[in-house]
Amino acid sequence: MGLAGVPRLPGALIDRARLEAVLEEDYGLGVLCAPAGMGKTVAMAQWAARTPRRGLWLRVTDGGGSPTVFAGHLALALHDYGLLDSGNPLAAGPAAFQFVAEPWDTLRRGLARLGELALAIDESEYLEPDTVSGVIRLLNDLPSLSVRTTTRVANGFVEPALTIALDVVVLRDDELALTRGETAALLHADEDTPIVSDVLDHGGAPGLARLLTFDESATGGRGGDRTLREIDSSRVSEIVDSFLRIRRPSWDSRFIDFLEAICLADAVDIELAVRLTGEADAAALLDRAEREGLGQWRGHGSHGLRREAAALFEPSPFAQRALSASARRNMQAERLRELELSIARWESEHGRPFEALRRATTQRDWPFVTDIVRRSSSELLPYGGQISQLFRDVPLTTLGRLPLVTTLLALIANARPDHRLRALEYFLLAAYGSRQRSATRDPADRVLLGTLESVAQRVSGRDGGKAARKAFDTIEALSPSDRSRLGRNEPSVWNQIGTSLLYSGDVPRAIASFRQAIAASDAGGYRAGLQGLALLAGTHALNGEMTQARAVADRAEAREWPDRWKTGYPGSFLQLAHALIALESGDAATAQAHLHTLDEHRETIEHWAPLLHVDVLIELRLHRADTARERIRSIASAQRARRAVSHFTGDRLRHTSALAALAAGDLSGAERILGRAGDPRTAVSRARIALTGDDPERALRLLTAAPGEAMSARTRAEHLALTAAAVAVLGQDDAHARAANQRADAALAENAQMLALALVPDAALEKLATSAHRLAQRAFARRVERARGWGMIPSPGVAPRLTSRELAVASELGRHEGVSQIAAALNVSPNTVKSQLRALYRKLGVNTRTDALRVLAAWGLVRPGVDTGFDDLAARGPQEG
User: Is 799-881 the same fold as 251-331?
Assistant: First the structure.
């Protein structure tokens, strides 16, 4: 059967049945650990090509060893070779790991669905230690998984302690070295021939023996003897250099030039080989290189691969090292730069953006570096640490001229809590750079630079609306050909423009941007449209357009999402939409569950302010106003420390805080929080405070003065609900009341809202219910009665809602003379009693113990007639008496 993706083996090989037998044994981890030239890859490939096991060959290359990149490459290879079903979380390829802190849980679940699976991981010396540890955890967790791997250096796979929990076999130099019989067979010589002894004396390296088979003089005795005496067997590079010295005379200059050019690349296809060398018969020359042991063909298909256009030729590591070094010594600098950049362009075109970026950065081709980032920024993010290293020594003056690159560095830094200050510096530098260059760029680049400037401003806590509006107008005016230059970035550009517009208060154009993101994504088959759907659903929900929010959320749920996207940054607004939809139905538990799916990322998700607003609504629905206020204090403080509070976010936070204060009975605090702002939303909030304080006349004045055309659907529904309630409290004529009720009912029904009614103060809501029943407005009356069951804003004239702990403190308040006695009776600490007394006094609207007992008795919350003759605790506040 054989594993999928095994490289085609050269013809002139000997069977090493003893090694195959060891690799086929039933154990979890097999490691071939030895220097280059010891035949590790060939031995593992021979086993992988013949094993009856089902599995995959995966080669690790420099730059691909981080956990996220490794997992992405593995998922993509499993998909390409048809080993995944559509429901497997790995089916999305690298996208499955784009928004997760670490990939192992997703990888574990995906591999578990595959049953028995063998992985052959070639060149695991390129894996980072965290990746090696992750693979070992997978082996411990998945008995159905087995791994065979090669490595030139000792890594975590050969730690002795592994054998405690895992069956491990390690093959080192002595096991991999050729036996005398194998050496003779490979060299087509008798076992007692001196050349056989020389190979064994130099470590029995299969690579050395194979190289010598291509030098006819080597079997002649003296030539081979002289060559081997020049070799230091402990230095593979010297072995290969020696091989090149003896092989060059048999290679014509054309073949040498060809080899040096192609060995600058990690892999070439026939087209790239022709481009680099100008040789029309590049395919034949690559075949010759394979026959001479200088590389292998790899590609899609079985281990019996026939060379096709899709196949890649990968130089052998030791040959590549020597020939590329020779190229760098012998070539003109201008020619070498030309080849390196040609390879980089091929890598960029063939899904190897990091490799392309590394070459382009080394060559200091900044326009090309910018182009790579422009087209592949999302694919580059998993290489974060390595990209930061690439640009570590690039001067800030240079980075200031590369705003796309600087923004990528900012996003990488922002993903790490300890690098937030560096991220802010990069964002500001990117904003400066985009402004400096915007006047000289073509329209497509002006869109990107304007978008990045808005992102930099938004993430650093400033208003990115102006830059976003400019980018919106520019992209709208683009010709089809200019817009096509944005490529797969277009949906992401629309998403970012829309988010910046949303946070600057321009909701209509934000919605238009998200719709454009979805359309562009659907047209191009991109995944960024999923985030557009989430943003659109959440924006409609925040805006109070619940019918549209539900429809868009349903569309989003019908799509196939990469694993963890819905519970990370891309899907955060979808979870917000679901939470608000649930809340409008009265289901606080479901709303809370949706927000809890984001817990892992809440600290870094930029949408913290609207998520906090929904948190507060949930707490108010559960009658926990004090919990809501504490949550606001905690989160707002943390976000201010991160400089993540813009003017617009601060304004939204003001309304959320005022609502929580009002629900806690702190009317004056709510007024103070709102300040002097004169916008319609503030007028509605002030009217709610006035109505809570039993001042319907002031409430109506405020509501009448607020311009309805400037309101969102949510604010308008709250405006109409409060207006109808104020009219009911004033007892105005039936015609006036009927009209006010009808307008409120129509707005609530049209947008499937209930929270607007539930946020009417309790006493006013009771009057509104009486009005609706009296006027025989049955549907509206049912709606109001349901809202009364939720009542989120208690009125001073309505019995306060006390928690069970507050009721317990209230029941002890008239029986004991001090906080310590109450604490002893309830078996809690005095500090706990003090905190509960403060909350109790605030809810009762009193400042003294005597008044508290009187109000409690009036509402039947404590037994009347309790002794109130001792000194008042509250004269000093809820402190020790």
Answer: yes
